[in-house]
Amino acid sequence: MTSDILMPLACTSPEIETIFDLKIKITNDPENDTSNSVEISTPSTLNSLPPTTRPRHYRIECDHGTDFLWRNYEDITEEEEVSYLDADEMFVSDSKSLPQSVKERYLDWVDCFHQYWDRRCNDYHAPIFVNKQEAVAWYVAGYLLAWRIVASPDVGSVEWLAGPSSSEYLLEKGNETAVTLEFLREMVDILDGRMPAE
């Protein structure tokens, strides 16, 4: 269960620009929750590209399954046969419109999880991340990458499963504000200690 209050920001309209062609502007009014908004954009050239195929839909599980992007069952063709794609495969076969930087950062994000996992694997009761700040940083990095994948004209949506409760967030164009505010509330709850990091 997440809190109903977003942490007030000193700046009411922070802008985040990533190194993988994604910009996010969050407008936060501490006095009026209904006026909060999130705008997600990519380079204008990408927005004008038509999809090369019917948009695909994926699921990303933020745990040991981060190596794979799971296809929506309705999207699987007879030739494909499997419901999952290795991350390398996805960036080559399913979404050719994504820049190389997205693939590189996604694989770095996966490697980060595995490095933490390898360090902790001798103690199965230990959390993966050393502290809640590192866990939140990892969740946020993956969340931004997932939005960048959704911004591709070849992608219809990404179902993002993250956090200690494996919360489901449906990332799709037009749903930026509601889903991002819900995600940020859960991250605040983790940082405030109202929810475990894993």
Task: Give an overview of the whole structure.
With 198 residues, this protein is of the alpha+beta class. It has five helices and eight strands, in the order βββαβββαααββα. Helix 3 (100-120) runs antiparallel to helix 4 (132-150). The longest helix is centred in the middle third of the chain and has 21 residues, at 100-120. It is globular, with a radius of gyration of 17 Å. The two termini are 14 Å apart.
What characteristic shape results from the CA principal axes?
Answer: globular
The main sheet comes to: 5 strands, mixed
Using only C-alpha atoms, the radius of gyration works out to 17 Å
Which strand-content bin applies to the residues? 15-25%
Assembly context of the chains: single chain
Uncertain runs are 1-9
Q: Give me the count of strands.
A: 8
Structural class: alpha+beta
Distance between the termini: 14 Å
Number of domains: 1
Q: Specify the number of helices.
A: 5
Mean of residue pLDDT values: 77
Spell the H/E element sequence. EEEHEEEHHHEEH
Strand order of the largest sheet: 6-5-4-7-8
The helix fraction, in percent, is 25-40%
Biased composition (Low complexity): 41-50
Region (Disordered): 31-50
